[in-house]
Write a structure and sequence with these properties.
The chain is mainly alpha-helical. The chain has 3 helices and no strands. Helix content is 96%, strand content 0%.
Length: 184
Amino acid sequence: MNEIIEKLNSEPLLMLSGAIGVVLVLFVVLTVVLANMRIRTYKNRFHNTQLDNEAKEKKITALQEEIQALQGLNERNKHELEQFDAVKLRLQETELSLKETQDKLAKLEKLQGQTQTKLENSEQMYTTLKEEYGSAKERLELLSEENNKLRVSNARLLIKLDTEERFASQLQQRGGSPDRKGES
């Protein structure tokens, strides 16, 4: 019976450990999936930007043939400046996103450490409670045995008392006392 109780007591810990493991695996998988999605998005944007740039360069070339060399050069410089500003802005946004991701990672690592500490404390508490339970169970068994002995003893004393009371009652009804019975 003790083996079954020990097994049942140990299963919630296994279940808790398994659940924590599953949550951690799901978190890692989710993080990887999100990172892959961002990478694909940035690759698609970069590819589209390259295609757009190629089309714009062809257009600029066609315009340069129609416009004087100086005006074409001026327009191209303006266009390159705008692209530089856009790239600079995207770089700043990417750096901000990276910093936010690093902050989230630091918080998650801290949370993981706290969770690990809580798990270790719970394991220690479980071990202590299991030991206390065993001691209390042993004490309960001893007290139950003692209680049973006292009940048997009490029943015997009650029977003895009842017998003595009947005997005393019979003596009183006969008009004698216990000392007179010995005299008769």
